[in-house]
Write a structure and sequence with these properties.
heterodimer; A: 155 residues; alpha+beta; Alpha-D-Glucose-1,6-Bisphosphate, Chain A, domain 4; eight-stranded antiparallel beta sheet; 30% helix; B: 112 residues; Arc Repressor Mutant, subunit A; 2 domains; three-stranded antiparallel beta sheet; 6 helices; WH-like_DNA-bd_sf (chain B); HTH_ArsR_DNA-bd_dom (chain B); ArsR-like_HTH (chain B); DNA binding (chain B)
Chain lengths: 155, 112
């Protein structure tokens, strides 16, 4: 089966391309990036600020169940063309990855389907690889933590 | 989702890693695998079940015996460090698609 989400990351390059096809008309796909309330649902984060215009900015925040800040990301919007394109920066707070540049292109494939191409540029190839490996490392950590929980219960 | 089927969880256990190493060299029956461990037979069976559920092992019926094969394809997927990153975005985009489809259906209901 062909994968709907694809990652293209060549060795030694400081960029990657994420592509995804959707069973959605392009205007609905774009809307999911345009409305704070919808972003909150699929990104699983609070949207503190979202100014969809050139020179605008955004701020996302996620808190853990205890109310501590777990994730914070922000950026500046450089270009905002409805149903077509968003160019923005993205930076995670308290993470050693520096700011990244994102080009989001939205295109219709038919009246009912569309495609998103995310071109992400990092400060260096090393940082790109670190960001790519993050969910992999978390997967292993989570497995180890679960194992640790089980072991602790046995004690 | 059954956490037990998570391939990372499966690999986090040292006995299961030892089983994979053993079966990687040749296909074996559950009995032959269990003979290599001090662990109780039902415990080994449980490990085999977990490894099979997450596709690291495959079963093949040979007469009355069931042989366990190592699945290098699945291992390759795990070794590919990009896969969890891809999965993260795939899950997000699936959610986005589901939410927007729901809205699309709701608004078409209103029009009727």
């Amino acid at each position: 089966m062909e994968q709907k989400t694809r990652i293209h990351a060549e060795d030694g390059k400081q960029e990657m391309i994420i592509t995804r096809s959707f069973d959605l008309p392009v205007d609905l796909l774009f809307k999911a990036y345009e409305e704070a309330e919808i972003i909150e649902q699929w990104m699983g984060t609070k949207v503190r600020k979202l100014e969809n215009r050139k020179y605008g900015g955004y701020l996302f925040e996620t808190h853990d169940p205890k109310g501590n800040l777990a994730f914070e990301a922000s950026g500046t919007i450089h270009d905002f063309v409805p149903d077509k394109r968003i160019v923005r920066t993205f930076e995670m707070s308290n993470a050693p990855f520096d700011v990244q540049l994102e080009f989001l292109d939205f295109e219709p494939l038919s009246d009912t389907t569309s495609k998103l191409t995310m071109h992400v540029v990092y400060r260096s190839a090393t940082i790109r690889d670190q960001v790519l490996k993050l969910p992999f490392a978390q997967g292993i950590n989570m497995a180890h933590n679960r194992l640790q929980d089980i072991v602790n219960k046995l004690k | 989702m059954n956490l037990r089927r998570d391939v990372f969880q499966a690999l986090a256990d040292p006995t299961r890693r030892a089983i994979l190493l053993l079966v990687a060299s040749q296909s074996m029956t559950a009995g032959a695998i269990a003979a290599n461990f001090d662990t109780a037979r039902p415990t080994v069976s449980k490990h085999l079940q977990i490894l099979t559920e997450c596709d690291l092992l495959q079963q093949e019926q040979n007469g009355r015996e069931i042989y366990y094969h190592f699945n290098p394809q699945k291992m390759k997927e795990v070794a590919d460090f990009i896969e969890p990153f891809r999965k993260l975005w795939d899950d997000r985009f699936n959610k986005l698609e589901a939410i927007m489809k729901q809205r699309m259906n709701k608004s078409s209901d209103k029009k009727q």
